[in-house]
Amino acid sequence: MDKDKNALHTYLDEIGQQRLLTDEEERQLADRIQAGDQRATDRLVSANLTFVVAMARQYQDRGLPAEDLISEGNIGMLRAAARFDGRQGKRFVAFAAPYIRQAMEQAVEQQGGLYRVPRNVADTRLEKKRSHPLSIDAPVGGSQELSLGRIIADADAPDPDRQLEQGTLLAELQQLVARLEPRERQVVERFYGLGTSHLTMAEIGREMGLKRERVRQIRDKAVRRVCRLTRSTELRDYLKQ
């Protein structure tokens, strides 16, 4: 078990070092993929593997180990890469999300085993997770864009009217969070609702046994680190609100 955990941690560290792609790089890779360039497929998928990890967290109580969910999600992402048209104005992770989700859900159905959480209970939990902020499931006005939805009212919470166009900022935030220290990652995931329920500063403090002000300090430090890692001005502006 420890060996498996160490292998998973090593994998997460490795994929966390991958540089994010620009819109233009994704378009160029998509063209090369359509021409049969396997290296382009590898590059596109490798740059977005942390997004699969973020999605796997939504299925963590469905009976499969994290490494199995991630493996199945990666297969789904490969399928998406073969069909991706970078000139349709949609980022790859937004396009790939349904393929990743389908692969994980099929794996849960086929491999979940005798000890998985009952389907009705697991589905209820999953629906609750999908209904929270930073869900990639809610379309805006019938367009290709993806919405943050509403963030639970809190004086410290991000602006609930802020929308992340085409899931780009959501995808970048989920990827960059994987590079944070464990405690920083926990605070950011709870505060922004990444793969879990959005919590206020006070609620995070109670969960972690910390004072509210200490939670704020950890979040602010994590935000500064993310801002140094990203090239996205929009993501920096969103996090600094």
Please explain how this structure is put together.
This is RNA polymerase sigma factor, sigma-70 family. GO terms for molecular function: DNA binding; sigma factor activity. Helix content is 61%, strand content 0%. It has 241 residues and is mostly helical. It folds into two domains: 2-131, Up-down Bundle (Four Helix Bundle (Hemerythrin (Met), subunit A)), CATH 1.20.120; 161-239, Winged helix-like DNA-binding domain superfamily/Winged helix DNA-binding domain (Arc Repressor Mutant, subunit A). The protein is globular, with a radius of gyration of 18 Å. The N and C termini lie far apart (41 Å).
Rg calculated over all Cα atoms: 18 Å
How many domains comprise the coordinates?
A: 2
Could you spell the SSE succession in H and E letters? HHHHHHHHHHHH
Helices and strands: which structural class?
mainly alpha
Q: Could you please say which CATH topology of the largest domain applies here?
A: Four Helix Bundle (Hemerythrin (Met), subunit A)
| Poorly predicted runs of 5 or more residues | 113-123, 128-167
Count of DSSP E strands? 0
